[in-house]
Amino acid sequence: MTAPTKPPHTGPADPDPAAESAPAGSPLHAPVIDWFDEHARDLPWRRPEAGAWGVMVSEFMLQQTPVSRVLPVYERWLARWPRPADLAAEAPGEAVRAWGRLGYPRRALRLHGAAAAITERHGGDVPSDHAALLALPGIGEYTAAAVASFAYGRRHAVLDTNVRRVFARAVTGVQYPPNATTAAERRLARALLPEDETTAARWAAASMELGALVCTAKNEACHRCPIAAQCAWRLAGKPAHDGPPRRGQTYAGTDRQVRGRLLAVLREAHGPVPQAALDRVWHEPVQRARALDGLVADGLVEPLAGGRYRLPLS
DNA sequence: GAACCGTGGGT
DNA sequence: TACCCAAGGTT
């Protein structure tokens, strides 16, 4: 039992299915949700005790970071800060340090800021309203929908990279979705959203899990796919992606790499770090200074008198 | 819309 | 080895 809510089966116990006024819905729903009931991973943020805060923390950490690397950090985070107010009471630098090597450390800062806003504006409770979630730092369209859906069972189209790929293949018949989310994709996601709120929330989690475990970017496992028989891409002979190349992100030699090295030194140090210690991480002084300035501008690093630096106390 | 923002594992 | 990719958000 890994899923947060019960499967809304229409089984023989149903009084009279023919009497339902609502349309049948997509033929994709039932197979995908049934598959999810059987194969969903037992992830800590899916357990009831995770609560909305646990769901929200997991969503921040999972933005561009794989599940396997999130798991240990998530557990320590929730043990240390079981409620938003607990995190809000800490220095932001502590969030950055606890973030460890998950990457994109601005997410840690934003999660801290979101916890503070929740404490101030929402009485310490993660809001369930999509607009209220969207107003929090670090929460965009996807995360707002995910928290509302996964934590509160609300009816929202949850359109992440997994779902976009599943829809691209199963419905549109292409190998990959466009580089950026399009209005057509949002329209499709809304059209496919089950009417019933509980079913919609399960569909959101199930379609995402299908993309993560079966309908993967590479080496898709169609033989394990519950909708393989209906998949437009597969039925078309799985044509290769033709559009513009999916832009890869260079990393070596970029400011990002320098920032990462600088912040690693500050994370591992407790207390102020002298300039000389930071100078050692990168040979090129201009780029090094630019990276450090960027970290300060982002609020990830606090400059002190005498050319010393530390993670931010405020 | 494009560019930027980390990190590590799989192939 | 080099490249691809991973539950995005902000500017």
TrEMBL record:
PROSITE patterns: ENDONUCLEASE_III_2. One of its GO terms (biological process) is mismatch repair. One of its GO terms (molecular function) is metal ion binding. CDD domains: ENDO3c (cd00056). It catalyses: Hydrolyzes free adenine bases from 7,8-dihydro-8-oxoguanine:adenine mismatched double-stranded DNA, leaving an apurinic site. Coiled coil: none annotated. It holds the Pfam family HhH-GPD. Keywords: 4Fe-4S, DNA damage, DNA repair, Glycosidase, Hydrolase, Iron, Iron-sulfur, Metal-binding. Residues 11-27 have a biased composition (Low complexity). Residues 61-213 form the HhH-GPD domain. It is an enzyme of class 3 (hydrolase). Residues 1-10 have a biased composition (Pro residues). It comes from the Bacteria. Its cofactor is [4Fe-4S] cluster. Residues 1-27 are annotated as: Disordered. Its EC number is 3.2.2.31. Signal peptide: none annotated. Belongs to the Nth/MutY family. This is Adenine DNA glycosylase. It comes from Streptomyces griseoviridis.
